[in-house]
Design brief:
Oligomer: single chain
Family: Belongs to the major facilitator superfamily. Nitrate/nitrite porter (TC 2.A.1.8) family.
Largest sheet: 2 strands, antiparallel
Number of helices: 19
Helix content: over 70%
Radius of gyration: 20 Å
CATH topology: Growth Hormone, Chain: A
Membrane topology: Multi-pass membrane protein
CATH architecture: Up-down Bundle
Subcellular location: Membrane
GO molecular function, one term: nitrate transmembrane transporter activity
Keywords: Membrane, Nitrate assimilation, Transmembrane, Transmembrane helix
Structural class: mainly alpha
CATH class: Mainly Alpha
Distance between the termini: 24 Å
Order of helices and strands: HHHHHHHHHHHHHHHHHHHEE
Length: about 425
């Protein structure tokens, strides 16, 4: 088993760090409206359904922007794409500070926050691009741990909103974006794993069954993570009548688990196989979703969410151990497409939770629905893996050597 030091020596740690920081701060900005949900809801007297839609809009916008940014990154480079994106985000934060003064403005700002959500595929591909196949799971797990930006958002946004007004929080966010931008410019180097391909070759992952299979799994793992991360401040505030700041702190506990465990998920996926890890975490997710329908005490609910987020985070890391094995030449595009569909699942979840609360008086129906969908995907995974193993991945989802792209767009194991 390779040590962490050995893994780092096999790649370019400064680029990995820059990718992590870039994703971390982008993720924090992406979920800002969710972190400030109780403040915005109180300001404009929103119904549960309106709150759910307001929270889901940045997720939806970010999902739709991921694939175009991934394609752009294949042409101008992932580092350059990241620099352009962060620069545009800073302009968007200026708009939020200066011009948001109504519910419709908040919705428009939600679309602009989606720009930050587009960073996913580029960040993971940039961070892992220097590392060999057998260590890509850990490298992607480290870069993907940037979804700990949720922790930054729910930890700092509510106190800032309470002290200075929630619109001013956008200004603070724009200023701190300078840090990852400078780090990206100074430390990152474009990985050498990018091949010159036609546009048709770049988007070939859109037309494979495997791409859509991965996307459905990611609807559960990442969609659940980002959807719940955005909705939990509102959930805790309304369900248990805690303060807005306390709701953010409780959300932080769950989000921190999901972010940190993502690295562990990638690490164990490298060694045990991504398929094996995914099977375990999907079972754990089903159990926690169903347990939450009983509306237990605040302490038990928080612990269940921590367990749920840990499972979802490990699943995110495990899934993206498999992506570069399946699409080694266009990981950024494949990752962006999978991330786009997964994030769309996250956009659905706040709406489902809000509608469940508004029409049934409880959030339970939303949890039951997500548990049922997770069980369906778990059953499908058992069927899909029979076609994957031996074709482009080893037993249980471990690396099968260095794959190459065939003329038909299907991956085959490399031959000597």
């Amino acid at each position: 088993m390779a040590s962490f030091k050995t893994v780092m020596k096999s790649g370019h740690p400064p680029t990995l760090f820059a990718a992590f920081l870039y994703f971390d701060f982008c993720f924090a900005i992406w979920v800002l409206n969710g972190a400030m949900g109780p403040f915005i809801t109180e300001t404009y007297k929103l119904s549960p359904a309106q709150t759910g839609f307001m929270i889901s809009l940045p997720i939806l916008a970010g999902a739709l922007m991921r694939f175009p940014l991934g394609v752009l990154a294949q042409y101008i480079g992932r580092k350059n794409a990241a620099i352009v994106e962060m620069s545009v985000i800073m302009l968007a934060m200026a708009y939020g500070y200066l011009f948001v003064s109504s519910y419709n403005d908040v919705l428009a700002m939600g679309v602009l926050l989606g720009i930050a959500g587009a960073s996913f595929g580029v960040a993971l591909s940039l961070g892992s691009g220097w590392f060999p196949p057998e260590h890509k799971g850990l490298a992607m797990g480290i870069a993907g741990a940037g979804n700990s930006g949720t922790v930054l958002a729910v930890l700092f946004a509510p106190p800032l909103a309470q002290a200075y007004g929630w619109q001013t929080t956008y200004a603070f966010a724009g200023l701190v974006m300078l840090l990852p931008l400078v780090v990206m410019i100074v430390l990152a180097k474009e990985p050498p794993d990018c091949e010159h391909q036609s546009f048709k070759e770049h988007i070939s992952c859109l037309f494979t069954k495997d791409g859509w299979a991965f996307s459905l799994i990611y609807v559960i793992t990442f969609g659940g993570f980002v959807g719940l991360s955005n909705f939990l401040p509102t959930f805790f505030y309304e369900q248990f009548a805690v303060t807005k700041v306390e709701a953010g702190r409780l959300t932080m506990l769950a989000a921190f688990m999901g972010s940190g465990i993502r690295i562990v998920g990638g690490y164990f996926a490298d060694r045990m196989g991504g398929i094996a890890v995914l099977s375990v975490v999907l079972l754990a997710a089903i159990a926690t979703f169903l347990s939450l329908t009983a509306t237990p005490s605040l302490v038990l609910t928080t612990l269940l969410f921590m367990l749920c987020f840990a499972a979802l985070g490990a699943g995110n890391g495990a899934l993206f151990q498999l992506v570069p094995l399946r699409w080694p030449a266009n990981t950024a595009v494949a990752g962006s497409m999978i991330g786009e569909i997964g994030a769309l699942g996250g956009a659905i979840l706040p709406n489902v939770m809000g509608l469940s609360k508004q029409y049934t008086g409880s959030f339970s129906l939303g949890f039951i629905g997500y548990a049922a969908f997770t069980a369906l995907v778990l059953g499908c995974l058992a069927l899909w893996q029979r076609k994957w193993v031996g074709r482009w991945v080893g037993p249980r989802g471990k690396a099968l050597g260095t794959p190459t792209e065939g003329e038909t767009g299907q991956l085959q194991p490399a031959t000597a």
